Each structure stands twice: as structure tokens, then as C-alpha cells.
């Protein structure tokens, strides 16, 4: 499936995409998005940029506001894969498969040991397996 | 007087309580604890506006995810995505902080978004947290700013406020309550071991409304159904119709009874048949319904004691086959389970049936079952019966109510704990009379308003395949026992023989 979705690079992209699929018209500050999804603000910012560049998200232009308007713009034309993606992510197993695949993609694209070390050092969502739960 | 611009909610039963709707532009505060139905009511307000009145709307959510709202709405039969595609609805997910900061700005993105679909209605789900002042702004000022923003856009807004401290009858005293134009309060109330939902219009500027707590339900495929409380004032037409027809009589269908009741009951009259279980009240009721069917008069039997198949079987036992009349739509039998009756809902059901079926005859079997559910000491039963009598009179129905009197021999009061005699036009007492070693069945017309009434006790019998008949006061020669006219004190508990020479003199019915 990921072959059809070249816009997603990492799990944060995926989570943000799914969030906007479920909340197609959102009025939030970027910091609130980060808290809701459990990622660092910088990660959220990068993922927002990717979704925007991919034409999946439209955001308000007025930067004087703290809150921004996010309009999910995925349709049949630019995201015919979306229903399958949502279906796959509706189960824990499917979601883990997607995350693994995205991690592999990310590693493949940024394959140098130095870049990998830097990426691994970056903050990540806390694993549920450790019983701490993600910040929601 | 100019016509008022009222916003109809479109929610079944609610506009009647609001006497037509809410003045456009009012800010409506919808209060209630968790699970009282705020989200459903608010969403339906917007949904009905878009679908029934061509008024697009916007829903703002803070906690409920839009896709869950869409899913839950589908269960109620509302297709929200279709409305979004038609640009009649927008669902916005936000945070309270973003929302409050947003609405304080003159060029609010949120209101701008509403303007893109020309929204006339807004529902904000969960404005709680306003009092935790935003950026040091006084909560009252923050709410004022919100109201001002809504008024600029001429939006009629429902703002849901979670208020867990609404158990008492007192207002919570929150600033939102005094600033809002309309305050609607939802509750779940305990009723024995059940819970019922209630809705109360606490205040509403600019128009009249029906006060008090009304019942409501949330029904799959229908949404919210509000049932006006049974005690609420009814349309004036109901009172005007309360003076019943004084000429048309409705024959009872019981051999011998019509002679005693001057040819039948008046249209619009209220008749109670009282007696202990087993004296033949339901048999009389079936004969009354069958007589209506025979005459082509629509007849309705409302049963709380027996289910329809059982009623049909009982009828067959006395030679009455109601099925053809039911198939023709002349007779309707309706059963309602007596457990935990929600009085407003139940009365609304009867009202709907009467308005739609337009019966001439109605039998309700039995009043005592209501009494045992609602209690006879408080006002609930009396108010319910008042409303029922008024409804039947408005529709000029000759209504018969069976009432189980607990006394087996004789009666010390006509309606026991049910102090309703003054409301009733006709009272027929059915009694067991013990003479010798036999129980015999006696019938006495104890009250017949606006009619002459002899109040003599007549013997009755119920024959297999024939039903009940009232016997002549003088039994034919050859009958083994003495006629009732030979006794006195029949409905006291100790009937005594009259001296033979006085029998005729006391028998006015001879």
C-alpha cells in the first residue's frame, strides 16, 4: 500500500493524516495538535508541511492567530488510497504493519549511520507496551 | 402586531412546548449532566434546521470526535455527511481555548467559516470551562464577547454546558444563565428503579413557553421525541369541547342495560364501571366495543391488563369475533405494558391514537392499573385522569373506564382510593351479592349526570357464548331463586328479605 502513498514518511505523518480524516475541519493551535497526538511540536510541524505540500491539507493563511484552521482536502483525485488506509489502521495489527513499513521507508531514505543516529535520538511517541500510554 | 420571527427547532414535541419556536438570534444555553442528551439535542437542532427549514448550520465539537458524531447521528437516521456535501452543514473540531480566543476576534475564522455556507444555526458542544477565564478575561466578559460575536452573524446558537450540579431545583447561578436568552435544562430523573429523561425551559426571552419538566426520549431512526407533561395546559379547544353533546346517545350493547341508562351513554361522557375482579367489567367492555363495530362506529380498547391475543380470546368466549372489524379498521385493540409507565409518554401515545383513529367509543381497562403504577395519593394519577377525560371530551368520545374496586361484597366507596367521582359522569357498580349459599351478580347505576337514575340494583348473568345481560327486576315464573326486588340492602354486605307485601311498593322499576 505504501507504494501508492509516497507522501507519508514516518508514523507522525500517518497519525496526523488519520486525525484529519476523522476531524476534516479543525481549529487548533499547532501545540494543541502536538499534545493531542503525542508528538513533539517540531515533528508535527514537519508532518503538517508534508501534508500541505501533498495537497491533503489546507491551512489558514493568517499567521497572527494562535489557532489555525485545518481543512482536510483528500479526495478521490489525490488520495484514492485513503479508504484502504483507514481500513488498515482500524485494527491494531494493521496499524503496526503500517508503522513498521514507514520506519523502514524512513530508514531507507535516510540511510547514513549519522542520520539514523540523529533520527533515533529524536523524541518519539511513548510505546503503549510499556504501559505509559500516549499523551492524548 | 408584526409576525414574530421564531426559529423552529424541528424536534418532535419541543416546538409545542416553546409555543412555536425560539426568537431568532436568541442564545440558547443547554444545561445538563453527563448523558442527559445535550449533544443529541444540539445536533438535532442543526440537522432539522438544514433539512426542514433550509437553514444551514455549524456544529463545534471539543470532545466528541466528528466521525463519532456522524456515526451516532446515522443511528438516529440523520445523514450528516450528505448535508456537508450539500454545503448545509459544517462540523468543526476545536479546543475550548482556541474557540474562546477565536470568537473574541472581530474577524473570527470560525464565524467566517459559518458565513461560507450562510449558516443560521450553531451548536457548540461543551462550553464548560469558560469560567476558567481565558487570558485573564473575566468569565462573564468572555461569555458576553461570545454572545456579541454570535449576534453579529445573526446566528441562533445552542451552547451545551455540562452542569453536574443540577440535581436541585435551584439555578446554578452561573453567569452564562443570566446572559443567555434561553436556558433549557436536561435531566435524567429516577422513577422507582427506572430513569426517565426530562426537559425544562427555565427561561426564554421574547416569547411564551410551557413551564415545568416535560419528558423526552431518544429514539433510533427518529431522534428526540418530547412529550409535554400531562399537567400542562392544553389548547383552549379542549376546554370548549368539554360541554358534551346532550342529545346523542351511544347504546351499550349489553341486553337490558340500555333501558336502565336511558338508551345509552351520552357522547363525550365519562363512564366508570367499578367492581371487584371477575364481576364482568371486561366482558361489558367487549360488548360495548362489539356494539360499536356492529353500528360501524370506530371503537378503541386500550388494555393494560391483558395483551391483545388474550382480549381476542376472551371475546370469542362470549361469542364476539372482533377480527373482521379490526381488519376493516373499525375496531382497534391496543395493549401497553403497565410496568414503569412514563405518564407523559403514555398519554402522548393515547393522544396520538385518538387524534389519528378518531374513535366514537373508547374503553380503558383498567384505571386501577394506572393507580397501582402512579399511586393514588399524589397528584400524578389525578392529573393524568383529568387530562384523559378532557381529551375524550374534546373528541366527543363516549369513554368507559373499568375500575377494579377491591371490595368483594358491597362497596363502602364508589372508587376506593381514587377520589375521582366528581370528574365522572356515570358510575356503574358491579357487585357480588350473597343470598343463601350463592354469589349473585348485581348491577347498580349509582350516578348518571344529567339523567334520571333509579339506583335500583339489577341482577346480571354472564352466559357462555353470549356475554353479560341485565335481568328483569321480576324474574320469570319458575326461576329457582327470588328476584333482587325481593331484597333490600343488596349492596350493603347483608341483604335482607323484604316483607312480601312491600316488594311492589319499593320497586320503582316494576
Quick recap:
The complex is a heterodimer of chains A (136) and B (510). Chain A has six helices and three strands, in the order H-E-H-H-E-E-H-H-H.
CATH architecture type of chain A: Orthogonal Bundle
Domain count of chain A: the total is: 1
Percentage of residues in strands of chain B: 25-35%
Structural classification of chain B:
alpha/beta
Report the sheet with the most strands of chain B, covering strand number, pairing sense and barrel closure. 9 strands, mixed
Distance between the termini of chain B: 67 Å
So, the CATH homologous superfamily of chain A? Answer: Winged helix-like DNA-binding domain superfamily/Winged helix DNA-binding domain
Structural class of chain A: mainly alpha
Net shape of chain A? globular
Strand order of the largest sheet of chain B: 5-4-6-7-3-8-9-10-11
Strand order of the largest sheet of chain A: 1-3-2
What proportion strand of chain A? Answer: 5-15%
- The low-confidence parts of chain A are 111-121, 123-136
The radius of gyration over CA of chain A amounts to 15 Å
Helix content of chain A: 40-55%
Number of helices of chain A: 6
Most strands sheet of chain A: 3 strands, antiparallel
The DSSP helix count of chain B reads 17
Mean pLDDT of chain A: 78
Kindly report the greatest chain-chain contact and the residue count on each side: A-B, 15 and 18 residues
Write a structural description.
The complex is a heterodimer of chains A (136) and B (510). Chain A has 136 residues and is mainly alpha-helical. Chain A has one domain: Winged helix-like DNA-binding domain superfamily/Winged helix DNA-binding domain (Arc Repressor Mutant, subunit A), CATH 1.10.10. Helices cover 49% and strands 10% of the residues of chain A. Chain A has helices spanning 11-22, 30-37, 41-53, 82-88, 92-109, 113-121, and strands at residues 25-29, 57-59, 67-72. Residues 111-121 and 123-136 of chain A have low confidence and may be disordered. Chain B is of the alpha/beta class and 510 residues long. Helices cover 30% and strands 26% of the residues of chain B. In chain B, the strands form 5 sheets. Chain B has a 9-stranded mixed sheet with strand order 5-4-6-7-3-8-9-10-11, with helices on both faces. A 9-stranded mixed sheet of chain B has the order 16-15-17-18-14-19-20-21-22. Chain B has a two-stranded antiparallel sheet with strand order 1-2. In chain B, α14 (343-357) packs parallel to α16 (379-394). The longest helix of chain B has 16 residues, at 379-394. Chain B is elongated and about 100 Å long. The relative contact order of chain B is 0.10. Chains A and B meet through β1 of A and β5, α5 and α6 of B. β1 (25-29) of chain A pairs parallel with β5 (89-94) of chain B.
Amino acid at each position: 500500500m505504501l507504494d501508492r502513498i509516497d507522501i507519508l514518511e514516518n508514523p507522525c505523518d500517518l497519525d496526523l493524516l488519520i486525525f484529519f480524516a476523522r476531524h476534516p475541519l479543525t481549529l487548533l493551535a499547532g501545540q494543541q495538535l502536538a499534545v493531542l497526538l503525542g508528538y513533539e511540536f517540531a515533528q508535527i510541524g514537519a508532518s503538517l508541511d508534508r501534508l500541505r505540500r501533498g495537497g491533503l491539507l489546507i491551512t489558514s493563511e493568517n499567521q497572527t492567530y494562535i489557532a489555525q484552521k485545518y481543512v482536510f482536502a483528500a479526495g478521490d483525485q489525490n488520495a484514492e488510497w485513503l479508504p484502504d488506509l483507514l481500513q488498515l489502521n482500524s485494527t491494531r495489527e494493521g496499524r503496526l504493519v503500517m508503522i513498521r513499513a514507514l520506519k523502514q521507508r524512513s530508514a531507507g531514505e535516510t540511510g547514513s549511520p549519522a542520520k539514523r543516529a540523529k533520527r533515533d535520538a529524536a523524541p518519539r511517541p511513548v510505546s503503549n507496551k510499556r504501559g505509559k500510554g500516549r499523551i492524548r | 402586531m408584526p409576525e414574530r420571527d421564531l426559529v423552529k427547532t424541528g424536534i418532535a414535541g419541543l416546538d409545542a412546548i416553546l409555543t412555536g419556536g425560539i426568537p431568532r438570534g436568541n442564545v440558547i444555553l443547554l444545561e445538563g449532566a453527563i448523558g442527559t442528551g445535550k449533544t443529541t439535542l444540539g445536533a438535532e437542532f442543526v440537522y432539522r434546521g438544514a433539512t426542514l427549514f433550509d437553514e444551514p448550520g455549524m456544529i463545534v465539537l471539543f470532545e466528541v470526535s466528528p466521525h463519532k458524531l456522524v456515526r451516532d447521528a446515522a443511528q438516529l437516521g440523520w445523514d450528516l455527511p450528505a448535508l456537508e456535501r450539500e454545503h448545509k452543514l459544517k462540523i468543526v473540531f476545536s479546543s475550548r481555548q482556541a474557540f474562546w480566543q477565536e470568537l473574541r476576534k472581530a474577524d473570527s475564522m470560525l464565524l467566517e467559516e459559518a458565513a461560507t455556507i450562510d449558516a443560521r444555526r450553531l451548536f457548540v458542544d461543551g462550553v464548560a470551562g469558560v469560567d476558567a477565564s481565558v487570558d485573564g478575561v473575566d468569565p462573564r466578559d468572555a461569555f458576553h464577547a461570545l454572545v456579541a460575536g454570535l449576534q453579529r452573524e445573526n446566528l441562533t446558537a445552542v451552547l451545551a454546558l455540562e452542569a453536574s450540579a443540577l440535581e436541585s431545583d435551584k439555578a446554578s447561578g452561573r453567569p452564562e444563565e443570566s446572559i443567555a436568552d434561553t436556558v433549557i435544562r436536561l435531566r435524567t430523573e429516577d422513577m422507582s428503579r427506572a430513569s426517565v429523561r426530562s426537559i425544562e425551559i427555565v427561561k426564554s426571552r421574547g416569547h411564551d413557553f410551557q413551564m415545568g419538566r416535560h419528558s423526552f426520549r431518544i429514539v433510533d431512526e427518529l431522534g428526540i421525541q418530547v412529550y409535554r407533561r400531562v399537567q400542562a395546559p392544553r389548547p383552549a379547544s379542549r376546554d370548549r369541547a368539554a360541554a358534551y353533546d346532550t342529545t346523542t346517545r351511544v347504546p351499550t350493547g349489553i341486553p337490558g342495560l340500555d333501558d336502565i341508562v336511558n338508551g345509552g351513554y351520552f357522547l363525550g361522557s365519562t363512564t366508570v364501571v367499578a367492581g371487584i375482579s371477575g364481576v364482568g367489567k371486561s366482558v361489558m367492555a367487549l360488548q360495548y366495543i362489539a356494539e360499536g363495530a356492529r353500528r360501524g362506529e370506530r371503537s378503541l380498547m386500550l388494555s393494560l391488563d391483558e395483551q391483545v391475543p388474550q382480549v381476542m380470546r376472551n371475546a370469542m368466549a362470549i361469542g364476539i369475533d372482533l377480527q373482521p372489524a379490526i381488519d376493516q379498521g373499525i375496531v382497534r385493540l391496543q395493549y401497553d405494558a403497565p410496568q414503569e409507565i412514563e405518564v407523559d409518554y403514555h398519554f402522548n401515545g393515547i393522544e396520538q391514537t385518538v387524534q389519528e383513529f378518531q374513535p366514537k367509543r373508547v374503553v380503558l381497562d383498567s384505571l386501577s392499573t394506572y393507580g397501582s403504577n402512579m399511586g393514588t395519593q399524589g397528584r400524578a394519577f389525578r392529573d393524568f385522569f383529568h387530562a384523559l377525560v378532557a381529551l375524550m371530551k374534546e373528541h366527543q368520545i363516549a369513554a368507559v373506564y373499568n375500575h377494579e374496586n377491591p371490595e368483594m361484597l358491597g362497596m363502602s366507596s364508589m372508587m376506593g382510593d381514587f377520589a375521582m367521582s366528581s370528574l365522572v359522569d356515570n358510575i356503574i357498580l358491579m357487585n357480588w351479592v350473597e343470598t343463601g349459599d350463592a354469589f349473585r351478580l348485581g348491577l347498580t347505576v349509582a350516578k348518571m349526570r344529567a339523567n334520571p337514575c333509579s339506583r335500583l340494583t339489577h341482577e346480571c348473568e354472564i352466559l357462555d357464548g353470549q356475554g353479560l345481560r341485565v335481568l328483569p327486576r321480576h324474574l320469570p315464573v319458575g326461576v329457582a331463586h327470588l328476584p333482587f326486588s325481593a331484597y333490600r340492602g343488596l349492596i350493603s354486605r347483608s341483604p335482607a328479605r323484604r316483607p312480601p307485601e312491600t316488594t311492589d311498593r319499593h320497586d320503582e322499576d316494576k
